[in-house]
Design a protein that fits this description.
There is one protein chain. Strands 2-1-5-4-3 form a five-stranded antiparallel β-sheet, with helices on both faces. Strands 7-9-10-12-11 form a five-stranded mixed β-sheet. It contains eleven helices and twelve strands. It has 426 residues and is an alpha+beta fold. It folds into four domains: 2-83, no CATH class; 91-188, PAS domain (Beta-Lactamase); 191-266, Helix Hairpins; 269-426, Heat Shock Protein 90, CATH 3.30.565.10. The radius of gyration is 40 Å and the shape is elongated.
Amino acid sequence: MEGILLFAGGITVVVVALWFWGEVVRPWRQLQRLIVDLAEGRKPSGFVGRGAWGLQETIGQLERVAAKLEGISSREEIERVNLQAILASLTEGVLVINAEGRIVLANEEFLRMFAFVEAPEGRTVMEATRLVEVDRAVEEINQGGTTQNLEVQVAGIDGGQGQTLAVNLAPIVEGDRQRSGVVVVFHDLSKMRRLEMVRQEFVTNLSHELRTPLSIVAGYLETLQDPAVLKGGEGKKIWSVLQRNCERLTLLVGDLLELSRIESGQMELNLVARPPREILEEVQEDWQRAFTAKRVKLKLDCAGGLPAVQTDILRVGQIFSNLMENALRFAPAGSQVTLSARQGESGREVEFGVRDEGEGIPADKTDRIFERFFRVDGGRVREKGGTGLGLSIVKHLVQIHGGKVWAKSGLEQGTQITLTLPCRGG
C-alpha cells in the first residue's frame, strides 16, 4: 500500500510540475520574449496561450499594444516611402539637420549639386557644403533664430562652371513647439543668372550695332540741310554712305526677325532627301563668281557613296549662304576655301565642312562664335561687314534639322566650321 501511495504521490508531483511548467513557466518565458521583441521594435513571433494562469489580462493588453505598434510601423513606413518619393521628385536640394547641427537626411538633388557619391548623414553643414554662410545660419536658427534666405556662390568642381544658389532655411518645430532642427532648401539660380547675362549682353550689343549706322545717318542728314552739298561728287558720296548704312540696318533687322522666328519654334521644315554632293555642287555654283572676283579658289571635296540627307532646301541654302559669306569675308586673296562632306562617326549623319585659310580665331574664343553679336575683334570684323548674327542663325537652323555644328580654329591656322545633317531614315 505504501508503494502505491508513493507512486501516486510521484505521479501527482509530475502532473503538478507539468501543469506549472505549461501554465506558468513557459507562458512567462514567452511573455518575456514578447516584451523584448516589442521593446526592440521586432514583430512578435507569437503570443502566449490564452489559458496562461494569471496572465489573461496582461496578454490582452500586450496584444492591443502590438497591434497598435504594427499599425504605427506600417503608417511610418508608408509615410517614409512617400517622403522619399516627394524628395526625389524635387528639383531643389534638401537637407534636414538635427538640433546638434548634424545632417539626418539629404535628397538626391542635393547629392547631385554638391557631387556626393553617398549620403552625407552625420556630417555638419560645413563639412558637407563648405559654405560658411549656411553653416552660420543653421547655428543661429538652432539657437532660436527665425527663417533665413541667402544667395551663395559655389565654386565649380575641377575648374568647371560655378553655381549661384538661393538657400532658404527654416526651423523644424515639433507639436510641443520645441525645435528639433532645421530644414535647408537649395535652389539653383545659375541658369537664370546666365540667361540674364545673355539678355544684358544682347541688349548692349544690339544697341551698339544700331547706334553706329544711326549716328552716321543722323550726321549726314544734318549735313543735307545745306542744299549746296547735294551738288557734285560730295552729294553722291553722302547718298552712297546713307544707302550703305540703311542697307546695314535693313539686314540687321531682317536677321533679328529671322532669329526670333527660329528660336520661337514657329519654323516648319519641308524635308526632302538630297545627295550631299548635289548640295555642295549647288553651293559651289552659286558662289563661284564671288570667290573668283576676290581671287580665292573654291574647292569641292566630297567623299563617294554618301547616303542622302534629310534637308529643307531653302534653309540649308541659308545655312551655307551664311557660312560662305563668312569664309569669303575672311579668306585672303590667293587662298583656298574647301567645301567638304564625309560620313559621320555614328553612320547616321553626314558631316559637311567649310574651311578657309584666313587669320583664324583664338582657341579660347572658338566656342563663342555662334553667340549672337559675338565678334573676335569687334572693330576689324565690323569693318568687313555682316550683322554678327549669321553663325547664330546657322546654329539654330542646324539644330532644328536634328544636327549639330562646331568650329575648329587657331590663330594663323584658318577656320573650319563643321555641321551634321541626319541621313534619310537615320
